[in-house]
Specification:
CATH class of the largest domain: Alpha Beta
GO molecular function: transferase activity
Shape: globular
Largest sheet: 5 strands, mixed
Strand order of the largest sheet: 3-4-2-1-5
CATH architecture of the largest domain: 2-Layer Sandwich
Distance between the termini: 32 Å
Organism: Gilliamella apicola
Protein name: Nucleotidyltransferase domain-containing protein
CATH superfamily of the largest domain: Beta Polymerase, domain 2
Strand content: 5-15%
Structural class: alpha+beta
Number of domains: 2
Number of helices: 12
Helix content: 40-55%
Keywords: Transferase
Radius of gyration: 19 Å
Number of strands: 7
InterPro entries: RlaP
């Protein structure tokens, strides 16, 4: 699959006349809890030729494709990516730290990731992750939950907890997030991750009482603790400089 993904990225570069500066895995495989039937969620950042940005017509800011078999491809133009970083959007924060990289121009991708730390808005990130966790949790039923959905609650909840306690961008992968938990709870969740690797994502499992208590208490605690945190707003100067330098370096 790795070769297929890389061949597809080269094909997209040629077909759309773009330069893919970074491509990674963004789904459960990168998060650290894949299932046997997990898709490959490939996300990429690309740059148009300079003259496209100087045209009166805006170049395509994103590229989306139907899911082909088990391959899910989606990409953002660098300008759109930088606009989202300015808003402290968690998605580019996650992509740029993915443990699975399919293609990258390290001279661009690594400084871009380092730049993200300067645009971290704890309040916005916490509310974002908390919202995802709450939405997934509210759609669960009774004392059982789909194993995939459980991690759609746990991972963003732990991300919100990380942003609150560490005041920094949350890790993408679940392993470092689990260090926030006591040993007994971490061990229980790791056992579920092992089970998930052999079961269908839709399979229902019973919710462990200790995990249930952690979810419910954490949602309430985080919501109370985030209230006094000040919202941060950012000026675009550094991102403008990065964008211009990147375009010039690629000429």
């Amino acid at each position: 699959m790795q070769n297929r993904i890389q061949e597809k990225l080269i094909e997209l570069e040629q077909q759309y006349n773009i330069n893919i500066i970074f491509a990674c895995e963004s789904g459960s495989r990168a998060w650290g809890f894949p299932s046997p039937n997990s898709d490959y969620d490939v996300r990429f950042i690309y740059v148009h030729p300079l003259d496209k940005y100087l045209s009166i017509d805006n170049p395509a800011s994103h590229l989306t494709f139907p899911i082909d078999d088990e391959l899910d491809l989606h990409g953002w133009d660098l300008k759109k990516t930088l606009q989202l970083i300015r808003k402290s959007n968690t998605t580019p924060f996650e992509w740029l730290q993915s443990p699975i990289i399919y293609q990258q121009n390290a001279a661009i991708a690594e400084p871009l990731w380092q730049l993200c730390a300067e645009f971290f808005n704890a309040r916005g990130n916490i509310f974002h992750y908390l919202g995802i966790a709450k939405s997934a949790w509210q759609s669960s039923e009774g004392q059982q939950i789909g194993v995939k959905k459980l991690f759609y609650v746990l991972r963003p909840l732990l991300c919100a907890k990380w942003c609150l306690e560490k005041q920094q961008i949350a890790p993408m992968a679940i392993a470092p997030l689990l260090t926030l938990l006591p040993d007994n709870l971490r061990n229980k969740i790791n056992k579920i991750i092992e089970q998930k690797a052999t079961m269908a994502e839709s399979q229902l499992i019973a919710i462990d009482p200790e995990i249930l208590l952690f979810i419910e208490q954490s949602m309430n605690d985080i919501l109370q603790q985030v209230a006094p945190i000040t919202e941060r707003h950012f000026k675009p100067a550094k991102l403008d400089q990065f964008f211009i330098k990147t375009l010039m370096d690629l000429q």
